[in-house]
Amino acid sequence: MPDDHQLLERFRFGDETAFQELIEKYYRQVQTFSRQMGLASSALVHVMNEAFLEAYRNGSSWTGKTFRTRLFQKVHTLVIDQLSTHEKTEQQYDQKEIGAWFQTAQGTFTSEKASFLLHDLHDFSIEQTGEILHIDNEETKQAREKFLAQLSKHGRKTEEAQARWKETFAALPDEVTPQEIWSYIQKARKQRRIKIAQFIAVGGTLSILSLGIFLLISPSVLIPDEKGPEPAPMEMEETEEGINS
Fold this sequence. Notes:
Layout: H1 4-12, H2 16-36, H3 41-58, H4 67-85, H5 88-91, H6 95-98, H7 111-121, H8 126-133, H9 137-153, H10 158-170, H11 178-217, H12 240-244
Helix pairs in contact: 1-2, 2-3, 2-11, 3-4, 3-11, 4-8, 7-8, 7-9, 8-9
């Protein structure tokens, strides 16, 4: 598969299939990270659709080096928003599928868990992880160390945690396909074009009405009343006194 730079260059020049290839390349990573953060099926599809829609709308301004980081930045924001909006018990992925072992990894709403997932499981650098989480490098390191200490407290080694989290979540079935994500983007584009057309139509109508009102009230274009000719100014009559004098 071509690298992100090549795909984005093709996309900038109007090749829509290039963005479909980007969806194909990253949809499972996005899906896995969202699940690992604790997002349930009810919200997972929404997060994936909205994340790639955002990437589609802004991808032409992103570079090949930043595309994946910015995509995950949007995903993380959407995930936290969903987790904060609903009860934690409603958002947690089905424990029967992922196993009770992951109950030791608490802190769904914290950056500690996200820093571990992004750096240790999804191969982002500390700098990239901090950028995704909107924290500096030192805070990112501290957050990751806190999570590792939590795992250690429950008798989980770092290597074991990395392997178990990758294998278990990678084995789960897809909630949404790349084709469904692309269809969502196309539908959103169509709705946006309709709204823009309606806005232009309303704007045009208002402009015509404004012009009509202006023509009606402007003194410079009022039609004068039909009146008879103005009487000529009366000449001063010379009085006999004036003549005699």
